[in-house]
Amino acid sequence: MKKSITIIITFLFFTFSFAQNNFGNPEVDPIHIQKTYTDWSAYQSKNIMLSRDFVALDPNSKEISKESFLNLLANRNYIPIRLKSEDSTYYYKLFLIQQNSDTSIKATINQIGFDAHKNFEMEGTQFPKFSFKDLNGNLVSNESMKGKIIVIKCWYIHCTPCIKEFPQVNKLADEYKDRKDILFISLAEDAQEKLKVFLAKRPLAYSVIPNMKVYMNESLQLNSFPTHFILNKEGIIAKVLPNFESLEVALEKESKL
């Protein structure tokens, strides 16, 4: 009798625990997705956005901090997979990388995790002081942008992903053109004359500040391009983002605050 009661209690406990979770099974087979680097890369680029807000889960489905999650991706042997959910919340869970998987998968995940962790650590900090002139001679500084949401794109002419997203970021800037409290500026490594020639053929709907290589390397310590920043109205870094897709999502959220 006691054994039966114990079984029932155990069953009810696990049923109750499961009911408290709004997530289900992985949206893809974690093992199958690792069969080739191409399969994993296609999934990663379309479905995993580490810069966004998400519930982080360890391999045992235990909730952990986002910082711990990114640190494990950067230094251990895990792959992130999104779980099916009953609500709009994103749930990312860690799964072990298979021993027979392409070694490039682990190496790439470690690098992605490292970059994402580095970006995450910058969020909530004050954006470094600066005072520069854009290509039109306008002064752009922390002081001149007080009280506004600032979107910053960091790039250079020979960065293929940076240029590829021009049509998308231009469209985004156009969507917010009537918001006087949102400014779009870009920091470019290249010299003024080179930028003017380049942008004459490929326009960018941001204020463009030239000769920013030293500032981006030393003050921002960037090693990945493009990198996007969203600063809140107090000049605090709200988000650091690696691409247009994550920028679009984050700006929509920030613009409603």
Plain-language structure description:
With about 260 residues, the protein is of the alpha/beta class. About 25% of the residues are buried. α3 (about 65-75) runs antiparallel to α4. The chain has helices at about 1-20, 35-45, 65-75, 105-120, 160-165, 165-175, 190-200, 215-220, 245-255, and strands at about 25, 55, 65, 80-85, 90-95, 130-135, 140, 150-155, 180-190, 205-210, 225-230, 235-240. Strands 1-4-5-2-3 form a 5-stranded mixed β-sheet. Strands 10-9-8-11-12 form a 5-stranded mixed β-sheet.
Distance between the termini: 58 Å
Rg measurement, Å: 22 Å
Class by alpha and beta content? alpha/beta
Largest sheet at a glance? Answer: 5 strands, mixed
| Mean pLDDT across every amino acid position | 91
- Report the count of strand segments: 12
How many H/I helical runs?
A: 9
Helix content: 40-55%
Taken as a percent bin, the fraction of beta residues is 15-25%
Low-confidence parts: 2-19
Q: What's the shape?
A: globular
> Order of strands across the widest beta sheet?
1-4-5-2-3
Could you state the order of secondary-structure elements as H and E?
HEHEEHEEHEEEHHEHEHEEH
Which characteristics define this entry?
257 residues; alpha/beta; 5-stranded mixed β-sheet; globular; disordered N terminus
SSE blueprint and pairings:
Elements: H1 2-20, E1 23-26, H2 37-47, E2 55-57, E3 63-64, H3 66-75, E4 78-85, E5 91-96, H4 103-122, E6 131-133, E7 139-141, E8 149-155, H5 160-164, H6 166-175, E9 182-188, H7 192-201, E10 207-209, H8 213-219, E11 227-231, E12 237-241, H9 244-255
Parallel strand pairs: 2-5, 8-9, 9-10
Antiparallel strand pairs: 1-4, 2-3, 4-5, 6-7, 8-11, 11-12
Helix pairs in contact: 3-4
